[in-house]
Amino acid sequence: MKISVIGGGYVGLISALGLAELGHDVTIIEIDKSKVDLINSAKSPIYEQGLQELLEKHIGKNLSASLSYESVGGSDVSLICVGTPPLPDGSADISYILSAAEKIGEACKDNSDFHVVAVKSTVPPGTTKDSVKPVVLKHSGKEPEEIGFAMNPEFLREGRAFEDFLNPDRIVIGSEEPKSAEMIEMMYAGLSAPVLKTSLTAAEMIKYASNALLATKISFANEVGNLCKRFSVDVYDVMKGVGMDHRLSPHFLNAGCGFGGSCFPKDVSALASLAMKMGENPYLLNAVLQVNEHQPEKMIELLEARTGPLSQKKIAVLGLAFKDFTDDIRESRAIPIIKALLAKGALVSAYDPLANEHMKALIPKITYCTDAKSALLNADGCLVVTEWPEFSDLNEEFHVMKDQIIIDGRRILRTEQAEGICW
Ligand code: NAD
């Protein structure tokens, strides 16, 4: 198939490469010229395992990037993968989606073949049916039977995104008629995953509900973990026992300093904001967010209880990315943690295997180090914020600290000196 992927960010780039790997002809359409140039010269604009090799394999063959929407006219499918960032009230900004829909419509004007416009971005329920569809039809001048619409949410995890693309738990396809759903199903031929066909709006809601439930599990584990610590009980033992129940699963019950990333905080806020707009009170979603906001404060409180006042104390922060195997710092728990340390007058030295540069652009006034040991040198305390596997081997490196006060926010350390945030 010929596929135009609109947006060359995390989701667009991974999807485009995955679809190229499945044998399709793929064009990435992107408004950021620097990303187009990087992709066309086989350089990945983001870090993701295996991505660089795949770019080199497909670019110039069955994959290219462009600033122009021209390829949409000759494509079977347009896959919308642009961002839906949060507005100040927490609701999702769908302006990038609408702008992409307008341009897709214009590019489809002279297209004589059936074309499917599929939304992969996370969008509020009703967006594909009530916003994307009318905008594409208006700008293309086409009748509803000439263009199909689908909603195909993405469930990838950054850091393991390509693995997730090739081995998804499920493929959800929302549509209004069978032809569009069949084309999207055909696009994924070659993947062995259950396909759930549903309505456009249910597919949109499935994505929000999935992320909200995963975030709820984490906040639940954190709240129970905070209580476990009061009883000197290891919350990881507790959650191991809880996760063995066949009605649950052992995943996403990892207590720690909370969830970050470009999806969970934004999607839970968007769902809560939607609930308010629709006259429902999102008691549970609000609590999930509150617990998550509180965990970084818990970490600072614990540190301060061990070190005394933080003013002029040197604190090493290990891990800046929101999770391991990515350079993405969006909503990383390291951000509120570093800001709280600075507000208390601490001197912060930080290290992350991949995310130093991104954090430097956001918080320039701390010391960035090229390895953990340099960050730990003469430190009065250390906070471990990201679950990078290399941190689990740290042991002697802590001996260069002035005081070996080490708070683990991710249950990654093996050294005996470390104290867990809620274990
Ligand atoms: P991103 O910000 O990394 O990428 C979006 C890209 O779209 C940017 O490169 C931007 O320049 C481009 N863009 C914006 N408007 C455009 C337009 N009109 N035409 C062409 N390109 C345009 O975002 P992302 O992380 O890839 O997320 C995209 C969507 O997927 C969001 O709705 C997000 O919630 C959802 N999602 C993200 C993840 C994830 O792990 N990042 C996982 C599942 C779903």
Structure, explained:
With 423 residues, this protein is of the alpha/beta class. The chain folds into 2 domains: 2-200, 3-Layer(aba) Sandwich (Rossmann fold); 264-420, 3-Layer(aba) Sandwich (Rossmann fold), CATH 3.40.50. Helices cover 42% and strands 14% of the residues. It contains 15 helices and 14 strands. It has helices at residues 10-21, 33-40, 51-58, 95-108, 127-140, 161-166, 178-187, 200-230, 235-243, 264-277, 283-307, 334-343, 356-362, 372-376, 389-392, and strands spanning 2-6, 25-29, 63-66, 77-80, 115-119, 147-151, 171-175, 195-198, 314-318, 347-351, 367-368, 381-384, 406-408, 418-420. Helix 5 links the parallel strand 5 and strand 6 (147-151). Helix 4 packs parallel to helix 5 (127-140), helix 8 (200-230) crosses helix 10 and helix 11 (283-307) packs across helix 12 (334-343). The longest helix is centred in the middle third of the chain and has 31 residues, at 200-230. It is globular, with a radius of gyration of 23 Å. The termini are far apart. Bound molecules: nicotinamide-adenine-dinucleotide.
CATH top level assignment of the largest domain: Alpha Beta
SS elements, strand count: 14
Overall SS class: alpha/beta
Low-confidence stretches: none
Bound molecules: nicotinamide-adenine-dinucleotide
Query: Mean pLDDT across all residues, rounded?
Result: 97
Q: Which topology of the largest domain does CATH recognise?
A: Rossmann fold
Gyration radius from CA atoms, angstroms: 23 Å
Query: CATH-wise, what's the superfamily of the largest domain?
Result: NAD(P)-binding Rossmann-like Domain
Order of neighbouring strands in the sheet with most strands: 3-2-1-4-5-6-7-8
β-strand percent reads 5-15%
C-alpha geometry: globular
- Tally of domains: 2
Largest sheet: 8 strands, mixed
Number of helices: 15
Determine the N-to-C terminus distance.
Answer: 52 Å
The helicity comes to: 40-55%
CATH architecture of the largest domain: 3-Layer(aba) Sandwich
One letter per element, helices H and strands E, the order comes to EHEHHEEHEHEHEHEHHHHEHEHEHEHEE
